[in-house]
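I am writing to request your help with a piece of structural work I have in hand. What I wish to show you is a protein chain and, alongside it, a tokenised description of its three-dimensional fold. Could you please explain, in whatever detail you think fit, how the structure tokens follow from the sequence? You will find the record immediately after this paragraph.
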Amino acid sequence: MTKVLCNFRISICLLTLALVAISTAAHAQNADPGNLRPPDVPEKIKVDEGNKVFLVGRAVGTQNYVCKASGSGFKFVLFTPQATLFGADNDRQVIHHFFSPNPFELNPDPTVVTPALGTPGLIRATWQDSRDSSRVWAFATPDTTLTSADSPLVEQGAVAWLKLTASGTQDGPTGGHTLSDTTFVQRLNTHGGLAPLTGCASATDVGNEAFVPYTADYFFYKKDESPAASSH
């Protein structure tokens, strides 16, 4: 397994990701993007009945960490992912993935302000459609997180598989709504992305950043309004 650590500009790091993505393309072999069908997963990250997949994106990007003091020691803490999601059956860029304040949830830290609205917003995982700028914010909990220690489905050295619950959605500025009906997001078939084991051991390391390449498949769900679903 190849792991590339980048502690310089993200734009330079992403040049490396193209090669990483090619060498790891087989990671999504269990997905069936043509039929929008996710692979079988353990119960803890299954999406609730009554929801259906409406969009699949294959992500190439980095998990970005910064070294911080933690208790009596130091550790790398995730400050944002930075990824582009491509269509599962083509190479078209469809979604951008990052962290941002969710204007629909108050942040307990009053120093954090949502720039556009001037109101506090809780920092959440965010996906923004690259065509119409609609957004969804979502979160996972330990109960909806699957690591390599929990299951052989998750590669050693890969970030966890997740079921994330939508905590807010927003239409784009011109009314675009591709992501506006999202209820859940699954992150599956991950490769890479874990924080490095070195580079954050002392006070002199505080502030060090590490941009760790990863790939994953993201499955977006919405309520299933079909007659077949409502009859259950």
Observations:
- DSSP finds two helices and nine strands in the chain.
